[in-house]
Write a structure and sequence with these properties.
With about 450 residues, the chain is α+β, with helices and mostly antiparallel strands. It folds into two domains: about 230 residues, Phosphorylase Kinase, domain 1; about 190 residues, Aminoglycoside 3'-phosphotransferase, Chain: A, domain 2 (Alpha-Beta Complex), CATH 3.90.1200. It contains 15 helices and 14 strands. The protein has a nine-stranded antiparallel beta sheet with strand order 1-4-2-3-5-6-7-9-8, sandwiched between helices. It has a three-stranded antiparallel beta sheet with strand order 10-11-14. Helix 3 runs antiparallel to helix 4 and helix 13 packs antiparallel against helix 15.
Length: about 450
């Protein structure tokens, strides 16, 4: 039995006996460790080593097969061993070397729009469960440390009990990328998911998801299921949120017509709905305040001008305001015999125009899952605006309000990309001036 919840409060690191440094990290930095040069090799492999410096800080050491050279006298006790899949030189997944845990880690994996990942999720688990891949893959990612060294594994063991290992997806570059650890027993049971912050942005997001799920757990939602909070604490200056696993392995079933919209409407109404004109709304004030925190540049100026023009042209338009999930996409939900499961609530926000979730789900499905280039992404945004009256009619929005809501959604996402500094982080569509802002300008011309 696992002892989740014994330290479920912000001071969990003290209760658990793990001291955290006073300084909060400003990025993925820590004491030097062995690893590839910062400017060489595949980007995700570099990210693994950068992440490793936080999860296994010195005196722990980690690396691939060359690890023994770092400990020639055998002074460091082995802590854990992982496989790098699909290949050690350019990994997408870090999974335990234990065959049952590795097979369990692969189930359900798949990057949005990646046929290779989807095929791998079906083919790899039976091969891993037999141990054939583990034997064939001689290059391992190993972690060793002197007894008593504080690592993310020692912290999770105090929360979840001994014998817990984990897997993690090494996602593509983006500002909000962070370790999301699937916590596994050696028998292959998933007992939770741990999100670990690595910088101020992800620290805020992890804390925001904790607050959102705590709030939503009291809202008695009937049309969807959310993960529960098993633990929230701090380790080594990093926020750690552990969530209960949802039954995503249950048989998937088709969503009945209207069910998704009804679930989104239920979330929108969690704190009640209110109507009012766009001009002078608290939403528009907050959006402008967020935009001011972005780096000064042409994109920020263009968005500020868009918001001014919207208020002048359609400020009298009455909108409905409520809550939204903030990142409701097909890869953040699953409809099963257990019901509609929805996760990743770190962008949950109150008092936004109703319908943002539906617009986001449709646009992100087309642009991200379809891996669209910039011209096609602009076209997808334009279709989103033209299709808004049909899509948002289910939330009671008239045609004019739907079009204004869709433009505000595009401006909101563009502001998010700017304030997160996604382009600087290497996100593929991180520059809103290349696709979102041109689409917004075109939509504005049609008002």
């Amino acid at each position: 039995m696992h002892n989740f919840g014994k330290a479920d409060h912000p001071d969990a690191s003290q209760t658990a006996g793990v001291s955290a440094p006073a300084d909060r990290p400003t990025g993925i930095t820590a004491s030097p460790q062995a690893g590839p040069p910062a400017t060489a090799g595949p980007e995700r492999l570099r990210y693994l080593y950068e992440m490793g410096r936080l999860l296994w800080p010195s005196p722990a050491v980690f690396g691939t097969a060359q690890l023994r050279a770092a400990d020639p006298r055998g002074l460091l006790a082995p802590v854990s061993e992982f496989l790098l899949l699909p290949q050690a030189g350019n990994p997408r997944l870090l999974v335990p070397a234990n065959r049952r845990a590795a097979a369990a880690a692969i189930h359900g994996y798949g990057e949005p729009g990646s046929r290779v990942a989807a095929i791998g999720a079906k083919v790899l688990p039976p091969l891993l469960s037999t141990g054939l891949i583990s034997v064939a893959m001689r290059t391992r990612f190993r972690v060793s440390a002197p007894p008593g060294t504080a690592t993310i594994e020692s912290y999770l063991a105090q929360i979840a009990g001994p014998g817990i290992t984990f897997s993690t997806h090494l996602g593509a570059a983006r500002a909000n990328r962070k370790p999301v650890l699937q916590l596994l027993t050696i028998g292959g049971a998933t007992v939770g998911f741990a999100k670990v912050s690595i910088n101020p942005l992800t620290s805020d997001l992890v804390a925001a998801e904790h607050a959102a799920l705590t709030r939503l757990s009291r809202s008695r939602l009937t049309l969807l299921q959310l993960p529960g909070v098993l633990h929230f604490g701090q380790w080594a200056g990093l926020n750690v949120l552990v969530l209960s696993p949802l039954p995503v392995r249950n048989l998937r079933v088709a969503l009945p017509s209207g069910r998704l919209g009804a679930a989104m409407a239920e979330v929108a109404g969690v704190d009640g709905l209110h109507r009012g004109p766009l001009a002078g709304s608290s939403y528009l004030r907050r959006l402008r305040a967020r935009l001011v925190t972005a780096d000064n540049g042409p994109d920020r100026g263009a968005l500020a001008s868009v918001l001014d023009s919207l208020e002048r042209q359609v400020g009298s338009t009455e909108l409905s305001f409520g809550c939204w999930h903030g990142d409701w996409t097909p890869w953040n939900m699953a409809n099963t015999r257990s019901g509609l499961l929805v996760w990743d609530w770190e962008r949950f926000t109150r008092d936004v125009p109703v319908g943002f979730d539906a617009l986001h789900c449709q646009l992100q499905s087309e642009v991200v899952a379809g891996q669209q280039d910039m011209p096609h992404a602009i076209a997808a945004c334009t279709r989103s605006v033209s299709d808004a009256p049909r899509l948002l009619g289910q939330f009671g929005a008239g045609p004019a309000a739907a079009r204004v809501t869709s433009i505000l959604y595009l401006a909101d996402i563009a502001t998010r990309y700017l304030t997160d500094r996604q382009e600087r982080a290497g996100q593929q569509r991180g520059a809103p001036g290349r696709w979102l802002i041109p689409a917004i300008r075109a939509a504005m011309a049609g008002l």
